[in-house]
Amino acid sequence: MSGLPVLGSSAPWHGGAYGDRAMCVLAPNPSPMTLDGTNTWILAEPGARRCIVVDPGPDDDAHLDALRDALAERDLSVAVTLLTHGHLDHSESARRWHDMTDAPVRAVDPGHRYGGEGIGDGDVLDVDGLEARIIATPGHSGDSVSLVVPAEGFILTGDTVLGRGTTVVAWPDGDLGAYLDSLEILRIQAEAAQVLLPGHGPALVDPATVIADYVEHRRARLEQVRAAMASGARTAEQVVDAVYDDIPEAVRPAAVMSAQAQVAYLAAGG
Ligand SMILES: [Zn+2]
Questions:
Q1: Ion ligand 1, residue ranges at CB < 5 A
Q2: What is the percent of the chain where pLDDT is above 70?
């Protein structure tokens, strides 16, 4: 799950190579919540024989075949697969992908690891010269991480920041206070970054501006929720009615979840 349409790029997105070290295989699971589909990222140093795969995505034969073909074309084998978080649109195929590749699947949540260890803030992976650094960015979910690839200034953000729309804080596992802290961490990282590679939607240049817009959007929304509550809204449903005018029915449950996160944040004195 992921986003509500507000911010980001409206450019069509089909995946493909990005820069010299990243390639996106787009999963065929588009929806109002997953935008164009889940982005499965392949990261490798130019000329390397081994790669990192980020988020193998839904358990879909065509997608896993496309992923395997993309690796075969580049003569790459998988050294390790990482999950940005455990939501099904990112993790569902992880066990099967592990069986197909013999490579460990590493994740924050022990329930999503297959033959691999955990990952945590500050961990650095080096796969045939490709360095990738893990940053804990909880908020969308409790187990969300982002990944920095310094060689090309990439930040892979999973569902913490999307290529379009805003992310859903998947309350109660997700937490708005944690999410705002994570955006601040990403904002600092973004100063040295060139491009943001999200879990859904197009790659975005100028990560610092993208993240600043996210923070601003969150602050503005919180003010709207605060005002709605001051005018008598008591439940997340009432907040959604007051704050989100004319949202598509398909994303209403996500809006309610985000509203719950905002109400909980404000109730805790945020
Ligand atoms: Zn997602």
A1: 2, 89, 159
A2: 97
The pLDDT of residue 6: 47
- Taking the domains of the chain in order of start, what are their residue ranges? 3-206
| Residue 58 CA to ligand 1 centre (angstroms) | 10
Task: Quickly count: other Cβ atoms within 10 Å of residue 121's Cβ.
Answer: 14
The Å distance, Cα 89 to ligand 1 centre, comes to 5
| Of 75-89, 117-131, 196-210, 244-258, minimum mean pLDDT range | 244-258
Task: Measure 267 CA to ligand 1 centroid, in angstroms.
Answer: 27
Output the pTM of the full model.
0.93
Task: Evaluate if residue 85 carries a pLDDT over 60.
Answer: yes
For the stretch 64-68, contacts whose Cβ atoms lie closer than 8 Å and that sit 24 or more positions apart, written own/partner, are: 64/93, 64/96, 64/97, 64/100, 66/25, 67/25, 67/40, 67/42, 67/97, 68/100
CA distances from 18 to 21, 232, 264 (A): 7, 48, 39
Neighbours of 259 (CB within 10 A): 26
Q: Give the CATH fold of the 3-206 domain.
A: Metallo-beta-lactamase; Chain A (3.60.15)
Classify 103 as helix, strand or coil: coil
Indicate the angle between helix axes 207-230 and 176-190, nearest 10 degrees: 160
Q: What's the gap in Å between 244 CA and the centre of ligand 1?
A: 21
Q: Among 174, 215, 203, 185, which residue's Cα sits nearest to residue 87?
A: 174
